[in-house]
Structures are given as structure tokens and as C-alpha cells.
């Protein structure tokens, strides 16, 4: 899909499809080195992480298992409260496994802080994080993020798995929406 297919919904592209592809490749190479000789289980956080999980995993040379969780954060409006409910739990027992959580965005960091605590209580060998985008508020929570695709400023983004009202996830790039979209 091209920016022009969105009519005037798109404001601007922040990260292009090519930039996403090469960053996934670079990070996959780091992961291949870091996990050489080790078990690796990728855990994607639904729904947003579907694109990055699919692309990252295909750049990895390391044989890895994959599983998914779906969680729901409760908060006023667009603000994550950090109170999280599991909508879909893992199928795989992560005891003694090396888990790499895969996310599209870490914004307030509250969802991932909760998730890391939850997964650590299950006795994994390790839990690390890869996020395609990190926003500035994530620095204010106690969250160690091992792999970061891009640091972006604090504005709402869509595309590459990220939605506004469940739309725009299928854009192959990451961008911002025109103000009129939020008004409609
Ligand atoms: O750092 P935080 O402020 O907690 O926000 C990040 C979370 O918000 C988004 O998920 P969302 O709840 O929108 O669900 P989705 O993945 O289905 O879009 C995103 O995929 C992260 O899971
Ligand atoms: O900027 C964002 N876009 C889409 N979903 C999100 N969830 C947290 N931050 C964002």
C-alpha cells in the first residue's frame, strides 16, 4: 500500500518500509549472535506485533519457537493504566525458556512492565524485549528494553501493526494521521 492510497488520512511518513526492513534485519543479526547455541522463544503481543513478529522471525537464522499473548490495558481514553487483563495466554510453558517479547510500540511502558512481571513469575530462563518503536515515556518506567527499532517522539502513530480505531494496521510504513481523522 502506498501513502497515496490513503486519500488525505495520512499526515506524514516517519519510518519507511525500507527502513523497517533493514532495521529488522540488523536486529535479527544481533539476536542470532546473542542467542547462539541457546533456546529462543519469541512471544508476540497481539494484535499490534503481528507485522514485526512475522518480519523479524523471517530475518532470523536461529531456529526459534513462536507463541502469542493478547492483553488488554484499561485506562481513560488513549492512556494505558497499567492494569492489564490477559485475553489470550501462552500455549507454551515458558519455564526455563529464553523468552523474547516482541512489540510494535512501547509508549507509557505500563503494558510491558506488567507483562514482564507476569512472565518472570513463570520461571523462565530469561525475558528480554524487542520493540519496533519506543516513545519517550518508556524511559520513565523501570523496563529494560534490549532491542529497539526506532526511538520516536511522543505523537500517535499508525501502520505496521499499529492502529487507530482498529484501522491502518496494514500500512507497510509508520506514520501519523491528519488531525481530521481523529475528529471524525
Ligand atoms: O506502553 P503502553 O502505553 O502500555 O502501550 C503499548 C501497548 O499499546 C498497544 O496495544 P493496544 O492495547 O493498543 O492493543 P493492540 O496491540 O491490539 O493494538 C501496543 O501494541 C502495546 O501493547
Ligand atoms: O502511538 C500509538 N499508536 C497506536 N497504538 C498505540 N498504543 C500505544 N501508543 C500507540
From TrEMBL:
CDD domains attached here?
Answer: PRTases_typeI
User: Which reaction does this chain catalyze?
Assistant: GMP + diphosphate = guanine + 5-phospho-alpha-D-ribose 1-diphosphate; IMP + diphosphate = hypoxanthine + 5-phospho-alpha-D-ribose 1-diphosphate
Q: Which GO terms describe its cellular component?
A: cytosol
Domain Phosphoribosyltransferase span(s) in chain numbering: 19-164
InterPro entries noted in UniProt: HGPRT (IPR050408), Hxn_phspho_trans (IPR005904), PRTase-like (IPR029057), PRTase_dom (IPR000836)
- Major site of localization recorded for this protein: cytoplasm
One example of a Gene Ontology biological process annotation: hypoxanthine metabolic process
Molecular functions (GO terms): guanine phosphoribosyltransferase activity; hypoxanthine phosphoribosyltransferase activity; magnesium ion binding; nucleotide binding
Going by the UniProt record, its keywords in alphabetical order are: Cytoplasm, Glycosyltransferase, Magnesium, Metal-binding, Nucleotide-binding, Purine salvage, Transferase
Any Pfam family hit: Pribosyltran
Q: Which domain of life is it from?
A: Bacteria
Q: Provide the protein's localization.
A: Cytoplasm
CC cofactor: Mg(2+)
Is Nucleotide-binding one of the keywords UniProt gives this record? yes
* Documented EC number(s): 2.4.2.8
Q: Name the family.
A: Belongs to the purine/pyrimidine phosphoribosyltransferase family.
Q: Which PANTHER family match?
A: HYPOXANTHINE PHOSPHORIBOSYLTRANSFERASE, HYPOXANTHINE-GUANINE PHOSPHORIBOSYLTRANSFERASE
What is the protein named? Answer: Hypoxanthine phosphoribosyltransferase
Amino acid at each position: 500500500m502506498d501513502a497515496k492510497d490513503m486519500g488525505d488520512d495520512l499526515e506524514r511518513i516517519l519510518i519507511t518500509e525500507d527502513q523497517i526492513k533493514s532495521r529488522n534485519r540488523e536486529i535479527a543479526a544481533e539476536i542470532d549472535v546473542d542467542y547462539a547455541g541457546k533456546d529462543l522463544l519469541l512471544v508476540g503481543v497481539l494484535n499490534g506485533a503481528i507485522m514485526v513478529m512475522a518480519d523479524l522471525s523471517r530475518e532470523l537464522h536461529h531456529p526459534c519457537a513462536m507463541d502469542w499473548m493478547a492483553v488488554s490495558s484499561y485506562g481513560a481514553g488513549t492512556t494505558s493504566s497499567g492494569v492489564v487483563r490477559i485475553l489470550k495466554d501462552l500455549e507454551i510453558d515458558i519455564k526455563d525458556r529464553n523468552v523474547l517479547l516482541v512489540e510494535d510500540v512501547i509508549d507509557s511502558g505500563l503494558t510491558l512492565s506488567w507483562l514482564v512481571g507476569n512472565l518472570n513469575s513463570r520461571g523462565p530462563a530469561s525475558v528480554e524485549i524487542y520493540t519496533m518503536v519506543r516513545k519517550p515515556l518508556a524511559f520513565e518506567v523501570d523496563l529494560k528494553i534490549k532491542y529497539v527499532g526506532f526511538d520516536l517522539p511522543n505523537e500517535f502513530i499508525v501502520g505496521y501493526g499499529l492502529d487507530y480505531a482498529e484501522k491502518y494496521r496494514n500500512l507497510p510504513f509508520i506514520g501519523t494521521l491528519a488531525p481530521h481523522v481523529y475528529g471524525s
